[in-house]
């Protein structure tokens, strides 16, 4: 091999021990800085989207479990007359309406315990979010590898019983007993944990009252009420 060829190869990094010229440290440092800057940029751009999508997926999953827990208990056969004691006069007019706090408490406690068990089972399974969903494009919504989102129940299933009266026609009023449920959960993402509260309201029983609402009526009052029945029929599932 001629001297000219050997000189050309040496200038290209060949002909030395190792075969290639070692890269300079400034170049390595510049590449490393660019890589880190790119990761920081992508993290800042994608993290809010990931948080939003993950929160939506968890919200849907928890609301589904709330509905299942309520309807599992109502499926055993719960009638309006079992929860509300209604008294009438000789003319059939409603004179007294009073909630049966013992039965209501038993029902709400069963719902809360069932929901806590369902949440515990959900926490042991992963909720998957396709990365294509992060693009915001419909065609890519179910594409790409899945980002694993874990659910962490952090303790509280809060319940509140309340009721409302709404007009149901001429001289008719619909009375609905409703259950407010609030669940606090943690959402485990890669290198991050966020916490959120999920609420849902479902009707338990309802009935149409013909005639005026009786003057003697003991209402629920709500969990934040003072006195009355509120302290007896609202609480948590712990």
From TrEMBL:
<dbReference type="InterPro" id="IPR014197">
    <property type="entry name" value="Sporulation_prot_YunB"/>
</dbReference>
<dbReference type="Pfam" id="PF09560">
    <property type="entry name" value="Spore_YunB"/>
</dbReference>
<protein>
    <submittedName>
        <fullName>Sporulation protein YunB</fullName>
    </submittedName>
</protein>
């Amino acid at each position: 091999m001629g001297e000219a060829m050997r000189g050309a190869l040496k200038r290209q990094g060949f002909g030395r021990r190792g075969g290639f010229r070692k890269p300079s440290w400034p170049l390595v440092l510049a590449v490393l800085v660019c890589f880190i800057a790119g990761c920081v940029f992508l993290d800042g751009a994608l993290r809010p989207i990931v948080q939003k999508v993950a929160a939506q997926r968890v919200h849907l999953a928890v609301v589904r479990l709330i509905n299942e827990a309520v309807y599992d208990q109502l499926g055993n056969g719960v009638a309006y007359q079992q929860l509300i004691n209604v008294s009438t006069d000789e003319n059939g007019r409603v004179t007294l309406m009073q909630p049966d706090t013992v039965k209501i408490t038993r029902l709400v406690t069963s719902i809360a315990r069932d929901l806590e068990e369902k949440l515990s089972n959900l926490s042991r399974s992963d909720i998957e979010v396709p990365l294509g969903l992060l693009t915001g494009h419909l065609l890519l919504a179910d594409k790409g590898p899945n980002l694993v989102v874990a659910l962490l129940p952090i303790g509280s299933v809060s319940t509140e019983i309340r009721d409302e009266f709404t007009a149901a026609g001429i001289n008719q009023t619909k009375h609905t007993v409703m259950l407010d449920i609030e669940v606090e959960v943690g959402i485990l993402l890669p290198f991050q944990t966020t916490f959120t509260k999920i609420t849902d309201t479902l009707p338990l029983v309802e009935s149409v009252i013909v005639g005026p609402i009786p003057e003697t009526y003991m209402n629920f009052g709500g969990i934040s009420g003072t006195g009355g029945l509120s302290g007896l029929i609202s609480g948590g599932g712990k």
